[in-house]
Structures are given as structure tokens and as C-alpha cells.
Amino acid sequence: MNIDLHTQIGNTTLKTPTMLASGILGISLDVFSRLYDEGAGALVTKSLSVEPWDGYLNPTVVPLKNHGWLNAVGLSNPGAEYFANMLSDNVTIPIIPSLVGSVSSDFTFMIDKFKNCNITAYELNLSCPHVAKVGLDVGDDPDLVSEIIKTIKQHTSIPVFAKIGLGTRNYLDTVKQTCDAGVDAITAINTIRSMVIDIDTQKPILSNKFGGLSGPPIKPIAIRCVYEITKRFNIPVIGCGGVTMWDDAIEFILAGASAVQIGSALAGPDWTGVFSSVNEGISQYMEQKGHGAVKEMVGLGH
Fold first, then answer.
1. Catalytic annotation on 179?
2. Percentage of the chain lying above the pLDDT 70 cut
3. pLDDT greater than 90 at residue 76
4. In 3D, which of 173, 269, 267 has the Cα closest to residue 229?
């Protein structure tokens, strides 16, 4: 049986349904190339801002006993212009810059920096839970979300994805706002605002006190969100949150995701083999169940 791992996200075709999530290993073209060769269908960069950001002081990342991670890196990045210069030699790797900003002009400024780069799509970070005036602070403002996406869509013909999270308002209202404004796909979900306290020092462990929870503990929440979004809206969805094995990816696809992003699973020592392992497991599952193409499985769990 011929197994086709290609997947379609709107007008964007990926060779496999597995993608690098933003924030993990997303700062080097050499690493992008290595992960692409290992089977990643696309690579999402760290979130980039107009100017370089230093991020928070350590500790910024904490492993948890429940196999999750808590982080408040503070969106540290070298800035869009530096990153665009680094990507200018890329020809074949499907790279998706993640962009973070406060107003429409922030995003159009950064998109102009990438105009001479081979870019597959843009992912708007509307959901970082621990940096003020960007991320969730923007995602929780429906009028601002609408204005940003409409402005970007008028500014570029490259597909625009919106990464949404769980903030202070109903996330489905944010999804509706992004769909109405013309976004091409939704990435769901980002990390969830959380905290851990050191019982010896009796203080929060992270320097920022609050951070974003990721990894296996948030997978059931992310699955629920993908299911609800695809049940209510006719828009491609990329699942994100706790994918560590092939069966996690299958679960997201059955919930309605056309692709999945992998992040925390790459924090381990065997990170180079994660994409090939997940893709091989998806392929074997498809053969076992008699599915020749990924699209045949999307939303079967409904």
C-alpha cells in the first residue's frame, strides 16, 4: 500500500504532517536543515520582534515531575532584521517565521524584512502567556487582532497562521475574529499560564514568577481545543501541545488537525530522531488502518 504523508494547510503543502514548534531550536539555519532532513514538514522559528530582546534572567525553564515544562524565556530573540539576513540563503527549507508585536505596524515592518527570503508562511504569536503588551495581551483584544490580521493580509500574499492560546476571554471568540479577518490557518494551542513554587526557598522558581506550561500535561486540553475549533469553523488547524510520540500526532489529526507541531519533546537527548520516529509511526498506523493519505484521517474523531 502506498502511504502519502503529504498534508495540506490551506494552499500550503508540507511533505509530512509534523512541524517544529516555535520557541524550540528555532534560531539556526543549520538546525532547521538538520530537522528538515530528519522529516519535519516545516520549521517555525522562535518568535521574532522588531528589535532584539534579551528575555528574562535565569531560571527561565523548569522541568516538572509530571513530564511537563514550565518556561518564561521572555521571547528572547535577535530581532527580525538579523534573522532575515540569516535566512536569506535558504532555498529549499520550508521556514515559517513566528512574529510577535503590539500593533499592526510591528508586523508589517518585520514582514518587509523577510521580503527577499524563501518564506512558507507567517505564524502570528497571539498567545504567549508571560510577556506584557504582546502575545495573550494582544490575543485577548478582539478588535486589535482583527486590525492586525487585516493589515497583514493586505501587506503580503504569503499565508498567515494565527497561534491562539487560553487567555482571559473565550478562545473561540478569538478564533472567530481571526477567521473573519482572513487568516489562513489556526495553530492551537500555546503554553498555558502557570507557576511553580520552590518549597525550600518558599518563592516562585522562575525569575518571572509566572510562565507557560507545555508538554504532555496540556495535551488533553489542546486536543479539546482542536476538536472544538474544527467542529465550529471551516479553517485548517495545526495542533500543538504535548506531542511526543506518533500516537499523540494521530490523536490530534483525528481531532481535526491537518498537521502537528512538536516542541517540548525536542528538549531530550534524542531530539534528532523525534521527527523520523513520529512520521514512521504515523505511516505504520495509516497502513494498518488502510488510509493512503493523511487527509483521509483529518477529523475522523468527530
1. no
2. 99
3. no
4. 173
Q: Is 289 exposed, middle or buried (0-12, 13-18, 19+ CB in 10 A)?
A: exposed
Predicted local distance difference test score (pLDDT) of residue 90? 93
Residue that the C-alpha cell 503590539 belongs to: 102
Check: CB of residue 65 under 8 Å from CB of residue 57. Answer: no
Q: Is 270 helix (H, G, I), strand (E, B) or coil?
A: coil
Question: Coil, strand, or helix at residue 130?
Answer: coil
Mean pLDDT for 281-298 is 98
Is pLDDT at 252 greater than 80 in this prediction?
yes
The pTM score is 0.95
Q: In whole angstroms, give the CA distance from residue 111 to residue 261.
A: 22
DSSP for 60-74, written as a single string: -EEE-TTS-EEE---
- Out of 117, 128, 179, 240, pick the active-site residue: 128
Question: Is-contact 112 156, C-beta < 8 A?
Answer: no
Cis peptide leading into residue 142 (ω within 30°): no
| Pairing between β-strand 203-204 and β-strand 197-198 as defined by DSSP bridges | antiparallel
Q: Are 274 and 254 in contact (CB under 8 A)?
A: no
Cα–Cα nearest to 145, from 165, 117, 121, 119 = 165
Q: Please name the residue that has the C-alpha cell 519533546.
A: 265
Enter the DSSP assignment of 53.
Answer: B
CA distance 186 to 180: 12
Q: How would you classify residue 76: left for phi > 0, otherwise alpha for psi between -120 and 50, otherwise beta?
A: beta
Q: Decide which of 195 and 129 is more confident.
A: 195
Per residue, the 3-state secondary structure of 190-239, as one string, reads CCEEECCEECCCCEECCCCCCEEEECHHHHHHHHHHHHHHHHHCCCCEEE
CA 26 to mean position of chain CA atoms: 11
Per-residue burial over 55-84, b = 16 or more CB atoms within 10 Å of its CB, e = otherwise? bbeeebeeeeeeebbbbbbbbebbebbebb
